[in-house]
Amino acid sequence: MSTIVSLPDQSTATLPKVSYLNKEYGLKSWLLTGDHKRIAILYLISITFFFFIGGAMAGLIRLELLTPASDLMAADTYNKVFTMHGIIMVFLFLVPSVPATIGNFLIPIMVGAKDLAFPKINLLSWYLYIAGGILLMTALISGGVDTGWTFTTPLSTHYLNTHVITAGLAVFVAGFSSIFTGLNFIVTIHRMRAPGMTWFRLPLFVWSHYAASILMVLGTPVLAITLVLVILERTIGIGVFDPAKGGDPLLFQHLFWFYSHPAVYIMILPGMGVISEVISTFSRKRVFGYTAVAFSSVAIAVFGFFVWAHHMFIMGVSNYSALVFSLLTMLVAVPSAIKIFNWAATLYKGSITFETPMLYAFGFMGLFTIGGLTGVFLGSLGMDIHLTETYFIVAHFHFVMVGGMLMAYLSGVHFWWPKMTGRMYPEGLSKLAAVTTFIGFILTFFPQFILGYLGMPRRYAAYPPEFQVLNVFSTAGASVLGVGYLLPLLYLTWSLKYGAIAGANPWQATGLEWQIQSPPLTENFVETPIVTHEAYDYEWLAHKTEHDEVETVG
Amino acid sequence: MHFISPVLWQFLIKWLTNFAIFPPEASRIAPDVDAFYFYLIGISVVGLVIVGLLVGVFSVRYRKERNPEATQIEGSTLLEATWTIIPLALFMVSFVWGALLYFRIYNPPTNAMNVYVVGKQWMWKVEHPGGQHEINSLHVPINRPVQLTMISQDVFHSFSIPAFRVKREVIPGRYSTVWFEATAPGTYHLFCTQYCGTLHSQMIGQVVAMTPDDYQAWISGSTSGTSLAQNGERLFAALGCNSCHNGTPNAHGPSLANVIGSQVQLANGTYTTATDAFVRDSILNPTLHQVAGYAPIMPTYQGQVSEEGLISLVEYIRRLDSNYRIDQTLNVSETGAGSDAAPASGTSTSTASGMVKQ
Ligand code: HEM
Ligand SMILES: [Cu+2]
Ligand SMILES: [Cu+2]
């Protein structure tokens, strides 16, 4: 069996007259929309906004760390800046990044539905997100908060007089937006698949979102409860976490990580979904071992709930629980390894091209491999003692979250940009951005592994002078990285008006979303599609393009 | 170096001499941790190279120009089993190796000398059994196991000595311990690694590892005159503990001689080993572990004794092997006469440190 690629002629493609973008006009038609695609765009704009605020904070952090002394800002200010950076990036950018934008846009189309199961809840979810964002900005403007994104008690409950409650509420509210998104996805995937779209014909993107949604729905309420307890402890002193009142300060750690470990998979699984789609499309091959990749997402989600105490190995958990949690952490690393190898094997005997999404996907594979393997360092009990709470941790999670998820997100945004907007991004410039990001990333975060092994603690505004050289590399890298992120913002905006017209299926991809016009109609499909083929069936696509043209309306 | 400006040159030199890429190995465990680290780096490099090679070779070999037609492949159970089992096996080796190290680092040998550490925003207070106090520094002898018993007075802190590869969270209201055996004399970094508020990055200090002779000299040079146990004895009298815990047959409270390390029967019938933490709990929250055979009459001392005071009491009770001195003290204070034999008598209240002033 073999498949020949023949990309469609871009020069003859035209923009459809009617699409979800021009069906209705005016601000109101956007703010009150029930259309999952418009909500996705609302999310896209808002998370981009918060990403750049969080990014500015990162810039300040790196600038402060250019020199050993705490000289650019006061220690308190520094603490507020890294706290705000963490909260914004985790709760307002990474958690919603792929699911709420790309996922929102594509899940219904990929399963062959007209919209998500609960369009109004979907809109509500965006409003909650915005409410959370506004609350957080209120906390920021009225003086900031300096708990760290982890809200550690008793520091957060008894020892700080900053805006902990406002920030806690912000995360609480934003949490519900992700619960609603997860709920919507689960119901949609269960109930609204088109005829013939069996579970094992779903694109892997859908599988990984399904797994992530389970984590969102089951994990986030625990975070919400924990934050409520922190707020109650602060306001009326209920004492659940206060040793002086017989409470247990470690309980907070357990509750917080019970959510926040699964949350790291909320942040990576959707990205893994993107990578599956992109690698398959640009090598014109079915994903190697579809079932293994699908089930590894579910395995990650299930195991992900039972490893939280690996964040507490030095906090005096009992030896036996340390053993169990370390063992489970090793097990959870295996499905990630499987995925990486399956993606690599997908390339085998493919017919590979290297468009921007593919470059980002390659970046993802390299960086996520490093991130995942250093996770094994941290999951090994004796090693974790030396590495925890140092820059090694910082490097580890930036490799997985920024090197992994952010690369996947950018890959996805470029990949589906033609579908969302009907226009192409400029290829040359975007390749430059992808390479810049990769180089900037390595330069920024690789030295931090070395710093971590040297023992440099995280969250330090000042550090001993022998750590300076590596910190200077890191700051230099951050400026490169900054350029890498600004470029897409500029050229993607530019392409909205000047980009080449994309046509329905510029990549010759197999997903249902590529069989409809770009940008899609509000109702996605003119008539309910009937699915007769597997995901990534390039044979089917080749036949289809021989026989009929893609239907467009108007 | 004429082609580089001397100023720049000086600057570079200074910069590079300050450039570290590997921490000193200054404890018994450090080389073992490093060996494990190299194993982990080894498997990571191999993994990364394999992934890199696969992606690189396939990208060249199967790029569209060379391979215009993709060949569809379903998958291969055998291959997939291979790349499930090999990483799993390597990770299992890490698990076992890591666990063995962990138990070594966190289970002190029985002959370790004990030093107490109290963390507070934003300093480390170190109490040696001999009564030496230090702030933000810790002097230890080399070639001798040292155990730290640590507690926080406020928020979470974390006590980290990178050169020794040890670290442990310092928790409010609960003792935690860590141990190490320094091997190379020198001065090393001591960091607080758990974010603890404004001056977290100033909660640093130094660990000075010394040869046994230097250490002896330091110990005798910096004594405060009162050992921890002596201070504890004074507190014991000043707080009135001795009125109940004097070992006499009709005492209101149990005898405390040799209690640490022994099995204590609780009122609910179970047995528990009395540890430092148990003693601390008994003082602050007596009803938490109700000892069998006694009425719950012991008052709580919550808020009356500082963490350092509690440490003194614990250290005193740890060394208490008979009730002789307690009786002495009692008799002495009852008769009101001073005695050289019992240092705890007389002006005990005014000299005991560790009571919270009210
Ligand atoms: C592939 C397998 C992975 C393993 C085995 C792993 C292991 C670990 C371990 C053991 C820790 C705790 C270290 C410590 O606190 O001492 C940790 C921290 C962390 N990991 Fe991972 N990890 C993996 C993947 C990920 C992914 C995919 C993400 C996110 C996308 C992630 C994000 C984080 C974050 C944010 C922290 C630090 C949290 C904090 O202390 O602020 N990890 N990881
Ligand atoms: Cu985790
Ligand atoms: Cu600290």
UniProtKB/TrEMBL annotation, chain A:
<feature type="transmembrane region" description="Helical">
    <location>
        <begin position="470"/>
        <end position="492"/>
    </location>
</feature>
<dbReference type="GO" id="GO:0004129">
    <property type="term" value="F:cytochrome-c oxidase activity"/>
</dbReference>
<keyword id="KW-0349">Heme</keyword>
<keyword id="KW-0560">Oxidoreductase</keyword>
<dbReference type="InterPro" id="IPR036927">
    <property type="entry name" value="Cyt_c_oxase-like_su1_sf"/>
</dbReference>
<keyword id="KW-0812">Transmembrane</keyword>
<keyword id="KW-0186">Copper</keyword>
<keyword id="KW-1003">Cell membrane</keyword>
<feature type="transmembrane region" description="Helical">
    <location>
        <begin position="252"/>
        <end position="275"/>
    </location>
</feature>
<keyword id="KW-0249">Electron transport</keyword>
<protein>
    <recommendedName>
        <fullName>Cytochrome c oxidase subunit 1</fullName>
        <ecNumber>7.1.1.9</ecNumber>
    </recommendedName>
</protein>
<feature type="domain" description="Cytochrome oxidase subunit I profile">
    <location>
        <begin position="24"/>
        <end position="532"/>
    </location>
</feature>
<dbReference type="GO" id="GO:0022904">
    <property type="term" value="P:respiratory electron transport chain"/>
</dbReference>
<feature type="transmembrane region" description="Helical">
    <location>
        <begin position="429"/>
        <end position="450"/>
    </location>
</feature>
<dbReference type="GO" id="GO:0046872">
    <property type="term" value="F:metal ion binding"/>
</dbReference>
<comment type="pathway">
    <text>Energy metabolism; oxidative phosphorylation.</text>
</comment>
<dbReference type="GO" id="GO:0006119">
    <property type="term" value="P:oxidative phosphorylation"/>
</dbReference>
<feature type="transmembrane region" description="Helical">
    <location>
        <begin position="40"/>
        <end position="61"/>
    </location>
</feature>
<feature type="transmembrane region" description="Helical">
    <location>
        <begin position="126"/>
        <end position="145"/>
    </location>
</feature>
<dbReference type="InterPro" id="IPR000883">
    <property type="entry name" value="Cyt_C_Oxase_1"/>
</dbReference>
<dbReference type="GO" id="GO:0005886">
    <property type="term" value="C:plasma membrane"/>
</dbReference>
<keyword id="KW-0408">Iron</keyword>
TrEMBL record, chain B:
<feature type="domain" description="Cytochrome c">
    <location>
        <begin position="227"/>
        <end position="321"/>
    </location>
</feature>
<keyword id="KW-1278">Translocase</keyword>
<feature type="compositionally biased region" description="Low complexity">
    <location>
        <begin position="335"/>
        <end position="358"/>
    </location>
</feature>
<keyword id="KW-0813">Transport</keyword>
<keyword id="KW-0560">Oxidoreductase</keyword>
<keyword id="KW-0472">Membrane</keyword>
<keyword id="KW-0249">Electron transport</keyword>
<keyword id="KW-0186">Copper</keyword>
<feature type="region of interest" description="Disordered">
    <location>
        <begin position="334"/>
        <end position="358"/>
    </location>
</feature>
<dbReference type="GO" id="GO:0042773">
    <property type="term" value="P:ATP synthesis coupled electron transport"/>
</dbReference>
<dbReference type="InterPro" id="IPR009056">
    <property type="entry name" value="Cyt_c-like_dom"/>
</dbReference>
<keyword id="KW-0349">Heme</keyword>
<dbReference type="InterPro" id="IPR036257">
    <property type="entry name" value="Cyt_c_oxidase_su2_TM_sf"/>
</dbReference>
<comment type="function">
    <text>Subunits I and II form the functional core of the enzyme complex. Electrons originating in cytochrome c are transferred via heme a and Cu(A) to the binuclear center formed by heme a3 and Cu(B).</text>
</comment>
<dbReference type="GO" id="GO:0020037">
    <property type="term" value="F:heme binding"/>
</dbReference>
<keyword id="KW-0408">Iron</keyword>
<dbReference type="InterPro" id="IPR002429">
    <property type="entry name" value="CcO_II-like_C"/>
</dbReference>
<dbReference type="InterPro" id="IPR011759">
    <property type="entry name" value="Cyt_c_oxidase_su2_TM_dom"/>
</dbReference>
<dbReference type="InterPro" id="IPR036909">
    <property type="entry name" value="Cyt_c-like_dom_sf"/>
</dbReference>
<feature type="transmembrane region" description="Helical">
    <location>
        <begin position="81"/>
        <end position="103"/>
    </location>
</feature>
<feature type="transmembrane region" description="Helical">
    <location>
        <begin position="36"/>
        <end position="60"/>
    </location>
</feature>
<feature type="domain" description="Cytochrome oxidase subunit II copper A binding">
    <location>
        <begin position="110"/>
        <end position="221"/>
    </location>
</feature>
